[in-house]
Specification:
573 residues; 3-stranded antiparallel sheet; two-stranded antiparallel ribbon
Length: 573
Amino acid sequence: MASVSSRRYLSVTFFLLVICNLFYKINAVGFGEPCDTENPCDPSKYLQCGFLSNTCECMNTLNTWYDHQDQICKLLVDVKCDRGEGFQSCVTNAFCPETLNPTCTCDQGFASNSERRCFLPYDAECDVSDTVPGDPDRCDPAGFLKCARVNNGYFCKCLDYENSFYNPNTKKCYLLSSANCNLTNNSMPCLENGHCDIWDRTCKCDEGTPVTPERRCHLMHGSDCDPFKDTCNIMGHVNCHTNLEKCLCTPEPEAIFYPAESGCRLLENAGCSVAEGAQRCINNSECLPSVGSEPRRCKCMYNLSPNKNRECHLTYDDRCDTRDDYCDPAGYLKCSSDNTCSCLNPNSFYDVGARECRYRVGASCRPGQAEQNCGKNAACSLVTETCECNPLYEDAGNGDCLRSFDAPCSQEDPCNGRNRLHCYLGRCQCVSGFINSKMGSSNYDVTCLPGYMQACPHDPELQLPCAPEALLTCIGGFCNCVAPGHHIPQENRCALLVGNECVPLPDNTTNVCVTNAICQTDGFLPGRCVCRFGYTETFYGQCINTANSLLVAMKMPQISILVAFLWRYFLCS
C-alpha cells in the first residue's frame, strides 16, 4: 500500500509541475517586454527581468546576444560553451568545438566582429543569393559592410566604399574627409580625428589636424606633433614620439615607413602577429612561427635575404629576372643582362660586410651627395671628385684601402698584404726578403720590392722589379747585385765599395755606397764612394771607425812606420 501511495504522490506532483510550467510559459514575457513577479521572463529563452529596466533581457548580458529570428539568447564568441541538446547555443555562424574547455568559435570563413558575432569579414567573397532570412547578406552590419559587386565578383565592402575605408583594428568602416555623413547613432561614423559637420553634413578634420591627399585626418610621418594628442596616423602604426615630438613608426626601430600606405610595416626579424588588424611585415616577407616559446617573427620569402636596412631582396650574384627586379636597391644592385644581381656602376665592387656596392679607388664620385660610398678607408675627394684612400692608407687592389708602409696597424686595421706588408710591432713593415722602395714624396709612399736572391719578377701580374735602391737587378730569375755591388747581409741590400764610381739616387736619402760611406761628387758625375769623416777604408773597401781599430795601419804604411818608431822609442827610454 505504501508503494502505491508513493507512486500516486509522484504522479500528482509531476502533473502539477507540468501544469505550472505550461501556465508559466503561457504567461512568460518575451525579450524587451515589461516584467515583474506576476509577469516573469521566459527562462527557457535564457531571459531575466532587468533590475533597473524592468524589461526582459538576456541572462549574463556581457556574454550573450538575443537572436530575434530564433527568439532566444545565444552565447557570443570566446564564451565558454557546452555541446549537446539542452545547452545554450552559440550565435549564428558559430559552433562549440569538441575540445577541452571549449568556447564559441566562428565557422570557417567567418570572423568575429566588434560585437563578438560571426559574419563574413571585409574583402571576403559573398553571395547576394545565399542569404540568411533577416540578415541581408551575411557581411558584418556592425562594421557597416555590404555585399557589393566589384569587377566580376561579389565581396564584402564598406557601404559607401568609394568614400570610406575599413579599419581592421576596430573592424569597422569609416567615412573619409568630405564624404556625406549622418548624425544618427546607427550611421557610419567619420574617420579618426574627424567629425560630421552639423551644417553641411560632411566629414571634416578636427581643428589642428590637416587633411592628407588620401582624405585622411592625421599628421604626416615626420611631422611635429603633440604627444598628448593622437593626431598621427595611429591606424598606420605611426605614433607621436614622446621625446622627439614627431610622428614616427612604432615599434621603434623595428618598423619602416611605406609612403604609398602612409603607414609603417615591421622589418625582417621583428616580432609580429597574425591576428586581424596586426601590423604587417614588409614586402616579400611573412610572419612565421619561431622555435619553442619565441614569438612569431617577420622572415623573408622566395629565397630572398635581408639587406642592410632589414628589407628582403636578392643579394649580389643571385639569379634574377629583369622583368621583376628583386635585386637590392639599397645595395646599389640591378638585374644585369646575364640575369644576375650586379653593381649599378661598373667601376664598383661588392662589399660583403657592408652588403652594398662601393666605388673603387679612382672612380668618379660626388662629394657630400647621398649616393654610393667609396670603399673601406677611402673618401670622395672635394678636389678631384674621385675616391681616394685616406691618409696612411693605400689601394689594396680590391676596392678597399689598407694601411701603408710604417703606418700604425692592428688585427682590426691590417696592412696592405698586396704590397707585401705585414704588421710588425704595431707598424706596417715589408715582409722578410722584401725591401721598402720609395715611390713618391711621402714617407708612406713605399712599395716593398724583392730583395737579394728573391725570385723576379716576383708577381707576374704586378711585374715587380728588384729593389733599385738596393742595387739589385734580375739575373737568371733572381735578384742579384749590380756589378760592382757588394751584398751586405745584415742590411739585405747591395752597395758599392769605397773607391767605386757612383751616382746618387734621386731621393738623396738612400745610400748607394757601403755603410759609413757616401757618394762624393764634388759637383761632377760620376762621383766616387769615400768614407765619411771619422771613418777609414779597410782592405775590403769598407769603412770603420778610425779611433776604435788598429787595423788601419795595415792599409797605411806611413802610419805603420810611425807607430813602430814610437813603440821602440818608449821601450828603449
